[in-house]
Design a protein that fits this description.
The protein has 430 residues and is α/β, with parallel strands linked by helices. The chain has helices at residues 8-21, 23-26, 62-68, 108-122, 150-162, 180-193, 217-225, 242-246, 254-261, 265-303, 306-327, 330-372, 374-379, and strands spanning 28-39, 45-51, 54-60, 77-88, 93-106, 140-145, 167-172, 198-203, 230-234, 249-250, 384-387, 404-408, 413-417.
């Protein structure tokens, strides 16, 4: 045995030379099914060719696409690829470098996918009328995915960032292999029975074979029959499965599913603060309006007061007296005095009646204003109650045990949790 040793680079270079010298590998046509297809942002296309016996990595450089790829190649396409098998010396791997790709037909998996998609669509399982709305403030979220991997980590990380108090219940399901579809369907049924606000069903990216469990009819039916709203988050943005069509909402990735499922707690706090400020402004406006109306009533009452009327009559009498003094007719003066006394008597009586009426109207107006004052109601022991979503609570039946409520008092605010509910036939005012 020779004791001479070689470097890794020397071995890879030698193998690359063998590939270059082999005429068959330099001009070869390979038939297979497309999988792991990626259209890279550089313009290159990366994919694999597979059949029952193996998988061969392949690539088509951007310079060859215009003339060598004349159709939109997709996962599951059955193709014939012409090109050269080359060795990537640095990585010690070989790959089919395609110069031309011809479509021969659809792969078995893709045919099954399209057939099931058409069948379930005709049955109405994808119809928009069956889609359930996604709750705006979900606090208990069920997740059906593998217990390890990037998908579950991303969902938990994004959910906790948006709302630290969210409760996530994981059903550790198989997401790949023969028993995966049964495991996923069972996970959906289990979490649905636990009363979740929302379910996220999915996994990370992969080939069509890797994601095939989410193309099974059992999973689609479990999603369709689920009473809880379901967000499907399977693979990457370019991956589409039967589960995506059956779900109430499709998310392009597991991280995006968490963004859609969990509300932003900080944004909610800002919204609640804005609502508090609007309520406070409305109450202050109501009080200011009441004060303005009261001041206007006081002004009108003051203008109609006996003192003001007496001052006005005194001015008139003084004017009459001045005119009489200038005329000096004794009879007219006497008559004028008598008439003035009668006028004064009628005016005084009229002023008394008017004053009494004005006082009565003022008392009624003041009573109404006082009864309309929100501050008086709060000061009398009443309170204003909102549920956790900011809606006014008028009936104990609107709440459940454990719900968070906000109580606004005459001085201050209380945050509380409902520990018990007593439903009565009639309210306090009935």
């Amino acid at each position: 045995m020779s004791s001479q040793s070689y470097t890794v680079g020397q071995v890879n270079h030698y193998i690359a030379g063998l590939f270059q010298e082999d005429f068959l590998l330099r001009h070869i046509r390979v038939r297979g099914e497309v999988s792991n297809l990626t259209y890279h942002k550089t313009g290159h296309v990366y994919f694999c060719l597979k059949d029952a016996s193996g998988v061969l990595g392949a690539a088509m450089w951007r310079s060859q696409r215009a003339s060598g790829l004349t159709f939109p190649m997709r996962e599951g396409d059955q193709v014939v690829v012409s090109g050269t098998v080359q060795v990537y010396e640095r990585g010690g791997a070989y790959k089919l470098i395609a110069s031309r790709v011809e479509r021969e037909g659809l792969g078995d998996l893709y045919v099954r996918y399209e057939a099931l998609k058409k069948q379930l669509s005709e049955m109405g399982m994808f119809d928009a009328s069956y889609k359930k709305p996604i709750p705006q403030y979900a606090t208990r979220i069920g997740v059906v995915t593998a217990p390890t991997g990037a998908a579950v980590r991303d969902i938990i990380q994004v959910s906790k960032r948006r709302y630290p108090g969210v409760e996530i219940v994981l059903y550790p399901a198989l997401v790949q292999g023969e028993k995966a579809s049964l495991s996923i369907a069972r996970g959906i049924e289990t979490l649905d029975a636990m009363g979740m606000d929302l379910l996220i069903v999915g996994r990370g990216g992969g080939s069509m074979e890797d994601l095939w469990a989410f193309n099974e009819e059992s999973v689609a039916r479990a999603i369709f029959d689920c009473k809880t709203p379901v967000i499907s988050a399977v693979g990457h943005e370019t991956d589409t499965t039967i589960a995506d069509f059956a779900a109430d909402l499709r998310a392009p990735t597991p991280s995006a599913a968490a963004e859609l499922a969990v509300f932003d707690y900080k944004s909610l706090q800002k919204e609640l603060q804005a609502r508090r400020e609007r309520i406070s402004s409305a109450m202050q406006y109501c009080l200011n309006t009441s004060r303005s109306r009261l001041a206007d009533a006081e002004h009108r009452l003051e203008m109609a007061s006996p003192q003001q009327m007496i001052r006005s009559l005194k001015g008139r009498l003084d004017g009459a007296r001045h005119r009489l003094n200038q005329a000096h007719p004794g009879l007219r003066i006497a008559q004028a005095r008598e008439e003035a006394l009668r006028i004064k008597e009628r005016l005084v009586q009229g002023m008394d009646r008017s004053l009494e009426q004005r006082r009565h109207l003022l008392a009624v107006a003041a009573g109404r204003l006082d009864g309309l004052s929100p501050v008086r109601k709060l000061a009398s022991g009443f309170s204003y109650v909102q549920d956790g979503r900011g809606r006014r609570v008028e009936d104990a039946g609107q709440l459940n045990v454990g719900d968070a409520i906000h109580i606004y008092l005459h001085r201050g605010q209380l945050d509380a949790v409902v520990s018990g509910i007593a439903l009565e036939e009639k309210g306090l005012g009935e």
